[in-house]
Design a protein that fits this description.
By secondary structure, this protein is of the alpha/beta class. The protein contains 6 helices and 5 strands, in the order βββαβαβαααα. 48% of the residues lie in helices and 19% in strands. It comes from Dorea formicigenerans.
Length: 179
């Protein structure tokens, strides 16, 4: 018997619930914090089950779930990050059109259960997440540097008219003339 754990991710607190492959509710929705203590609470609730029978799913939500995913993968749980479009389809099939964190945990767990082939997060995926984050940070830093160079050029050309004749008024040798 498989156990499907659905986790609704938020900035400060997450909600989790578990259902069996028969659709029986095993864990009622409960709240846990987005920190080490909260992660340990989640794992303590799952300890009574066979780790190999547990499949944990959560929606891809910016970076709020990253630390939880890392923690669970390090604890050797099978973790699947779901596309929110899939859970949205399942939510539409729900008779009650309510959207609460507690209801979403079941929707996520049921979406997990209905998937034909699940792709679990690996240590390689975690490394790729880190590389993507570093790449995004680098791109952002380059854009900031470019914007600052343009601003500096504008001020140098505007207030030091003799620098208008230089092809690059913000190179080191040109700026050293200001002193």
């Amino acid at each position: 018997m498989k156990i499907y754990v659905g986790i609704d991710i938020a900035k400060l607190n997450h909600f989790a619930a578990a259902i069996s492959s028969d659709g029986e509710i095993i864990l009622e929705p409960f709240k846990f914090t987005n920190d080490a203590d909260g992660f340990q609470l989640l794992v303590s609730k799952l300890e009574s089950f066979d780790k190999n029978s547990i499949i944990i799913g959560l929606e891809s939500t910016a970076h709020y779930g990253d630390n939880l995913v890392r923690y669970l993968v390090a604890e050797f749980y099978q973790v699947c990050v779901l596309n929110p479009i899939k859970t949205c389809q399942m939510r539409k099939n729900n008779i009650r059109k309510t959207k609460t964190d507690k209801v979403d945990t079941y929707v996520i767990a049921k979406t997990l259960m209905m998937q034909d082939n699940l792709r679990f997060v690996s240590f390689f995926d975690l490394d790729m997440m880190d590389l993507k984050a570093l790449g995004r940070f680098r791109q952002k830093t380059i854009k900031q540097r470019t914007r600052l160079k343009i601003q500096l050029t504008t001020y140098v050309v505007r207030y030091a008219r003799k620098f208008n004749t230089f092809s690059n008024p913000v190179c080191i040798s040109t700026l050293s003339m200001l002193y």
